[in-house]
Amino acid sequence: MPFVTLREVLADAERGKYAVGAFNTNNMEIVQAIVEAAQEERAPVILQASQGALKYAGIRYITAMVRAAVETSTVPIVLHLDHGTSFEQTMLCLKHGFSSVMFDGSKYSLQENIAATRKVVDVAHAMGASVEGELGKIGGTEDDITVDERDALMTDPDEAVQFVTETKVDAFAVAIGTAHGTYKGEPKLDFDRLKTIDERVETAIVLHGASGVPAESIKKAISLGVRKINIDTELRQAFTRGVQDVVQNKPGEYDPRKILGPAKEEMKAIIKEKMRLFGCSGKV
Ligand SMILES: O=C(CO)COP(=O)(O)O
Ligand SMILES: O=C[C@H](O)COP(=O)(O)O
Ligand SMILES: [Zn+2]
Ligand SMILES: [Zn+2]
User: Fold this and answer.
1) CATH number of the domain that 242 lies in?
2) Range of the domain at 145
3) Into how many domains does the chain fold?
4) Is residue 1 situated within a structural domain?
5) Ligand 3 centre and the CA of 52: distance in Å?
6) Where does Zn(2+) 2 bind (predicted)?
7) Coarse DSSP helix, strand, coil percentages of the chain, rounded to the nearest 5 percent
8) pLDDT grade, residue 146 (50/70/90)?
C-alpha cells in the first residue's frame, strides 16, 4: 500500500471520533516496531521524523526504511516530517517521498507564521501531500517557566481560527499545556481552551508531547477533538529499558540483535497500548 496523507487518516478519525498515533522514528528497529504494532492492531499509523532523526539517520535512510515497511503493510501509513524548520526542509522531505510535513512556525509572529505555513501548504497540496501547522508554543518539560508564562504561550482561539482559515493546513498543533519530554508532576491540560478551539476550528487537532500524559487526560482530549497524538519520549524509554534489561541480566551478550530485538519488543508493547488508548486499533 502506498503512503497516505494526514487528510485520509484524520478524516476517518474524525468520523470515528478517535485519534491516530504519530510515533517518532530514528532507526530500523523503531520503524519495525511501529509498523508491526500497527499491523497487529489493524491501526492506521503516522511515522514521523524529527530534526534529530534527520540528523541521526539522514533523510535517505528514513525514507528507505519506511518505504520498505510500507511495501508489505496492509494498513495506511503516513510518512511525516515532525517540526519542520524551513520551507526548504519541507520541500526536501516531499522530494524524497514524505507524504506529509509539519511546518513549525510557532516561533514567528502570527502574520509571519501564517505566511510561511501558507507557502508550504500551497506547494505541498499541489504535490498531493498534507501539512501540519502549529500555533502557540509547545515547549520542553525542561523549559523553566512559570504557570503564567506557560499560559501566555498557549494557543489563542481567535488566532487559531485565523491561522487555519488563512493557511488551509490539514492538521493543527495546539499548545494546551503539554510539553516535549518527561513531566516532573502531572501535566495540567487546559481542556476549556481545547473545547473552545475545537468548536471554532474544523481542522483536525494535534496533541504534541503526549508521552507521560495520563490515560484519562488523553481520553478527554480525544473526546474534545484531538485526532493526532505524538509520542516519542515513551518509545525512547521503552527502547532503553529493553537494552538495559539485556545488558544487566546477560552481561556476556555481545550480539546486537539479541540486545536490540528485546528493545524493539518493549517499544511494540507501548505502541500497541497507545493505539488501544487512542481508539485507532481495529479501524482498518
Ligand atoms: O510531540 C512530540 C513529537 O513532536 C513527542 O513528544 P513526547 O516526546 O513528549 O512524546
Ligand atoms: O519534537 C521533538 C521530538 O520528540 C524529538 O526531537 P529530536 O529527535 O530532534 O530530539
Ligand atoms: Zn513547536
Ligand atoms: Zn512535537
Assistant:
1) 3.20.20.70
2) 6-278
3) 1
4) no
5) 14
6) 104, 134
7) 50, 15, 35
8) confident
Does the CB atom of residue 208 touch ligand 1 within 6 A? Answer: yes
Residue 284 lies in a domain: no
ipTM for the complex shown:
0.96
Tell me which long-range contacts 29-32 makes (C-beta under 8 A, separation of at least 24).
Answer: 29/239, 29/260, 29/261, 29/263, 29/264, 29/267, 30/235, 30/239, 30/264, 30/267, 31/65, 31/66, 31/68, 31/69, 32/69, 32/264
Task: Note the residue count of the chain.
Answer: 284
Instruction: Answer yes or no: is 83 a known binding residue.
Output: yes
pLDDT value for 73: 94
Q: pLDDT per residue over 60-106, tens digit each?
A: 999 999 999 999 999 999 999 999 999 999 999 999 999 999 999 99
CB 23 within 8 A of CB 271: yes
Report yes or no: 239 and 209 within 8 Å, Cβ to Cβ.
no
User: pLDDT tens, 229-284?
Assistant: 999 999 999 999 999 999 999 999 999 999 999 999 999 999 999 999 999 999 99
* Substitution candidate for ligand 2 out of 46, 82, 142, 183 with most atoms within 8 A of CB: 82
In a domain, 136, yes or no: yes
Amino acid at 123: V
